[in-house]
Specification:
73 residues, mainly alpha, globular
């Protein structure tokens, strides 16, 4: 299974940023983000302490579900 970070890189760089792309761009720029992790708890805890915007955790939760579905295939 590839890391969540790797999955999120497909959301980067939108001309009209949405919450998903804002989170992906932030993850790319944050050198301390756990880039090799595929652990919900590790990433969720990191976001709780370092949330880049108000609803980042809810965006993460919905993208995590998508990540699990796509990575199982």
């Amino acid at each position: 299974m590839r890391s969540f970070y790797h999955f999120m890189m497909s959301y980067r760089g939108k001309k009209k940023p949405d919450d998903e792309s804002r989170l992906a761009d932030w993850m790319f720029q944050d050198h301390n983000f756990p880039k090799q992790s595929d652990s919900y708890n590790e990433i969720s805890e990191y976001l709780e302490w370092n949330s880049p915007f108000t609803n980042a955790i809810s965006v993460f939760d919905s993208l995590w579900e998508e990540y699990l579905i796509k990575e199982k295939d």
